[in-house]
């Protein structure tokens, strides 16, 4: 069983610059055809100061740490036991190329089902920009399979 004392645990804060080239690459990778995500002129014509961040891109930026899964090991969870359960994004303000975003994550819940065969770790992340304006709240739920 995962020790529930990890609930409330804050993970290391990190910041990432949003780069135009990476936004274009991501848009292509997900099959996004709207030029607003890849062409500066289209983005500006649509009222954006630069290329906007596609809806799930912040999840990629959240992983921009040397070992994004280290906290699982610290909790006694081996990555071979985990499955992606859920992902939620709540946006508060737009994010664009040229912004610097900061991620503040914490473990907000741990619970089990099926007599402990499945455990769930909920991580909430608050994202703000270079002006400390909240831009998004991310929630991820991983499922831990126990023997």
From TrEMBL:
Domain FAS1-like dehydratase intervals: 5-137
CDD domains cross-referenced by the UniProt entry: R_hydratase_like (cd03441)
Identification of the protein by name: MaoC family dehydratase N-terminal domain-containing protein
Lineage per the UniProt record: Bacteria, Pseudomonadati, Pseudomonadota, Gammaproteobacteria, Salinisphaerales
């Amino acid at each position: 069983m995962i020790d529930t004392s990890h609930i409330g645990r804050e993970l290391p804060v990190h910041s990432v610059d949003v780069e135009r080239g990476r936004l274009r690459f991501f848009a292509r990778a997900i099959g996004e055809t709207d030029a607003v995500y890849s062409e500066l002129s289209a983005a500006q014509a649509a009222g954006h100061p630069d290329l906007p961040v596609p809806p799930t891109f912040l999840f990629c930026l959240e992983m921009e740490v040397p070992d994004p899964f280290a906290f699982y090991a610290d909790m006694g969870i081996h990555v071979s036991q985990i499955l992606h359960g859920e992902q939620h994004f709540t946006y508060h303000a737009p994010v664009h190329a040229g912004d610097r975003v900061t991620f503040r994550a914490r473990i907000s819940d741990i619970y089990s089902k099926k007599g402990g065969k499945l455990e769930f770790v909920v991580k909430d992340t608050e994202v703000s920009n270079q002006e400390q304006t909240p831009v998004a709240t991310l929630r991820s739920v991983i499922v831990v399979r126990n023997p």
